[in-house]
Amino acid sequence: MKVLLIHNKYGIISGEELMIKRTVALLRQRGHRVDCLLEDTVPSNAGLLAKERAFVSGIYSLKGVRKVNHWVRTFRPDIVQVQNLYPSLSPWVLPAIRQEGIPVVMCCANSRLVCPNGLLLSHGQVCERCIGGREYWCILRNCEDSLSKSVGYALRNFAARKRRLYHDNVTLYYALTVFQKRKLVEGGFPAERLEVIPNMVETSKSLGKVPLGNYVAFAGRGSPEKGVTTLLQAARDCPQIPFQLAGDFWRMPGVEKGKPANVELLGHLQGPRLDDFFKNCRFLVFPSICYESFGLVVIEAMLHGKPVVCSRLGGLPEIVDDGVNGLLFEPGDAVDLAARIKWLWSRPDLCVEMGKAGREKVLREYSPPRYYERLMQVYRRALELHGTHSART
Q1: Cβ atoms of residues 179 and 207 within 8 Å
Q2: How far is the C-alpha of 311 from the C-alpha of 90, rounded, in Å?
Q3: pLDDT tens digits for 164-199?
Q4: CATH number of 216-365: 3.40.50.2000, 3.30.390.10, 2.60.120.600, 3.40.50.11540?
Q5: 2-113+166-200+368-392 and 216-365, same CATH topology
Q6: How many CA atoms lie within 13 Å of 102's alpha carbon, on the beta-carbon side?
Q7: What is the DSSP letter of 322?
Q8: Please, are residues 98 and 128 in contact by the beta-carbon 8 Å criterion?
Q9: Rounded to a whole number, what is the largest CA-CA distance in the chain?
Q10: CA 98, CA 111: separation in Å to the nearest integer?
Q11: pLDDT, tens only, 305-360
């Protein structure tokens, strides 16, 4: 099968872009021909003119349409998979692909189809006001703390919805969790054309002996929606327990000065260093205050035989089974989180037991072979739906 993957990069390290690399590698390993159209994003320090162009191209990009047309006509894929199309490509590439007679599969790796900022989060609080065609709330609440940015985000969602660019030109969508699928359906997307494919993690490497671990771990983007403030408050209430945080915290400059003495910041880790970080922790804390699309580091920690303490929010309870492979706490509640941390830290045997259960779940549900099986089911169904639609028209 020939697959063309189209994505406008974000310019930051993210689980979504890591999954794109893994998906491309997996498809190629299985003998498929894969080509990638990866557009660079507009940097945050770009000039006013570049940002104005990005504003316009997010609504309609003639350059993006021409570029996609060229790739599709040159490569002639059997399937086109799209992810992020903003700001350089725009959703107008979708009818262009459809006109070439090729089915489109869209990976919904965030909530951008129903929420202009993609997070269903506004000023630190879960927010669903925009779901169902009410993008104006992004402007009224100035969700981006920049009126021009909030207006731009709202307008591009409004334009795509009114012209039915997604609804009429995407053959099949897939979300990462059942929860995320439900939100898309609430936003008006057809349940019968929505599948669920959870993320994957590389499971082939041998685990070896799993140490109990001597610190509580956090890994991820150091930004407010990840619940870093809640974690630091909980750590302050657990002075005898060491915490190690992996990630870049430049978005939260007060973390370095405001952290308690039992918290160590390690910076961004990857590769063997990240593996060692998971291996030597006792458990991972994932305290997000937003609807996470998935939470890739959660299954990374579980793969290493570690339990996870995470927010009872969004799709996370689909991954972390409370009392089986980890614990759930009320999002944003530092007292509740501290109580869970103290309780689990003082039960090393339970940590080992939960860690084993978590690894078993990862091997069963989140391995590359399982991901490939699900993805092929989606691709085959998209080809069938496209053939049926073409026959009718």
Answers
A1: no
A2: 34
A3: 999 999 999 999 999 999 999 999 999 999 999 999
A4: 3.40.50.2000
A5: yes
A6: 27
A7: B
A8: no
A9: 68
A10: 23
A11: 999 999 999 999 999 999 999 999 999 999 999 999 999 999 999 999 999 999 99
For residue 102, the cross-strand partners are none
In order, the DSSP letters of 155-187 are HHHHHHHHTTTTTTT-SEEEESSHHHHHHHHHT
Contacts of 348 (CB under 8 A, 6+ apart): 212, 282
133/151 Cα distance (integer angstroms): 15
Tokens for 230, please give them.
């809640």
Q: In the chain, what are the domain boundaries?
A: 2-113+166-200+368-392, 216-365
Query: How many Å apart are CA 263 and CA 79, to the nearest integer?
Result: 47
| Distances 371 to 81, 133, 199, 315 between C-alpha atoms, Å | 15, 32, 7, 18
Question: Would you say how long the chain is, in residues?
Answer: 393
Return the DSSP state at 31: T
| CA 80 – CA 71 distance, rounded (Å) | 11
CA distance 43 to 59: 18
Residue with tokens 């890994």: 219
- What span, in angstroms and rounded, lies between the C-alpha atoms of 273 and 256? 21
Supply 234's token pair: 């909980």
Closest CA to 325 of 370, 380, 276, 286: 286
Closest CA to 300 of 313, 315, 324, 281: 281
Please name the CATH architecture into which domain 2-113+166-200+368-392 falls.
3-Layer(aba) Sandwich (3.40)
CA 72/CA 97 separation, integer angstroms: 7
